[in-house]
Write a structure and sequence with these properties.
Blueprint (H helix, E strand, L loop, with lengths): L5 H5 L11 H28 L5 H18 L8 H14 L6 H40 L14
Helix pairs in contact: 2-3, 2-5, 4-5
C-alpha cells in the first residue's frame, strides 16, 4: 500500500482545503518555460560557438542555468523566492551578450514574469476576500443544518 503524505494523514472530514497560491503557480509556469528556453538556447550556442568558447563551459553554464530555474520553483513561496526569480530574469536577459536573440527572449519572459506575479497577487487577494465573505455568510446563516436537501432522495 502506498504511503500517505503528512497532509493526507492529518486530514479529517470537514476540514477546509488549503488554498494554493495563484502567484506561485503563475511564477512556476514562467520559470519552467524559461528552463526549457535556456536549455535550447544552450544547444544553439553550443552549435554556433563551440569553436570560439569551450564546449564544456557552454554546456555546464547553460544546463546549470536550466537546473537553477527549475529549482527556483521550489522556493517561490518563501519571502525571498520572488526576488530570486527577478534575479533569474536579469540573468536570462544578460544571456543576450552570448546570443543576441536572448535580449528579446529575456525581455519577453521578464514581461511574462511581471504580469504573472502582479496578476497572481491580485487573484490571491480576491480569493482570500471571497473566502472571508463566504465564512461570514456561513456563520450567519447556519441554523443547525449542514446542507439543505442532504440525505433526501428526489
Amino acid at each position: 500500500m502506498a504511503r500517505l503524505t503528512k497532509a493526507q494523514r492529518e486530514w479529517r472530514p470537514g476540514m477546509p482545503k488549503k488554498r494554493r497560491s495563484t502567484k506561485v503557480m503563475f511564477a512556476s509556469t514562467v520559470l519552467l518555460l524559461e528552463a526549457f528556453v535556456a536549455f535550447f538556447a544552450t544547444l544553439a550556442v553550443f552549435g554556433l560557438r563551440r569553436s570560439e568558447v569551450s564546449p564544456v563551459l557552454i554546456l555546464s553554464v547553460g544546463i546549470g542555468l536550466s537546473v537553477v530555474l527549475v529549482l527556483a520553483c521550489a522556493v517561490l513561496s518563501k519571502p525571498w523566492g520572488v526576488g530570486l526569480g527577478w534575479i533569474l530574469q536579469l540573468v536570462l536577459i544578460l544571456a543576450g551578450f552570448v546570443e543576441p536573440m536572448m535580449f528579446l527572449v529575456g525581455a519577453l519572459f521578464t514581461l511574462a514574469w511581471w504580469y504573472g506575479i502582479r496578476t497572481g497577487i491580485r487573484i490571491d487577494r480576491e480569493s482570500a476576500q471571497r473566502a472571508r465573505e463566504q465564512a461570514e455568510w456561513e456563520a450567519g446563516h447556519s441554523d443547525g443544518r449542514r446542507d439543505e436537501g442532504a440525505g433526501q432522495n428526489p
